[in-house]
Write a structure and sequence with these properties.
By secondary structure, this protein is α+β, with helices and mostly antiparallel strands. It has one domain. 32% of the residues lie in helices and 12% in strands. A four-stranded mixed β-sheet has the order 1-3-2-4.
């Protein structure tokens, strides 16, 4: 299992990370779980969890520049190849930003 978090988001919540890991582990058929597909968390609490197999398959098959640059794009765009879980939260806090995108 691989957990993807980015360096410009230093305010990660370990509870959110654990919840998304738990969602992937709970479904043995799942390849990918994330709170980014249906944004309900503040920007900056983005977490993606996926299997090594899904990462390896994306590495071998992804051809578009966007799919090569952004590690998981191939996985969540190809739901016929990968079982994807979207993790949402209540209340919807997607209007908040907890990220360092700008100097």
């Amino acid at each position: 299992m691989v957990v993807r978090i980015t360096a410009d988001d230093p305010f990660k919540d370990p509870t959110v990370i654990d919840h998304i890991i738990d969602r992937l582990v709970a479904d043995p058929q799942a390849d990918y779980a994330s709170n980014t597909l249906e944004p309900t968390c503040p920007k900056g609490l983005d977490v993606e969890v996926f299997t090594y197999h899904a990462l390896s398959q994306a590495w071998m098959e992804a051809a578009l520049p966007l799919e090569r640059k952004h590690v998981t794009t191939y996985n969540w765009k190809n739901t016929q190849l990968f079982k994807v879980i979207s993790v949402a939260q209540t209340p919807d806090l997607s209007h908040l930003r907890w990220t360092l995108d700008y100097p």
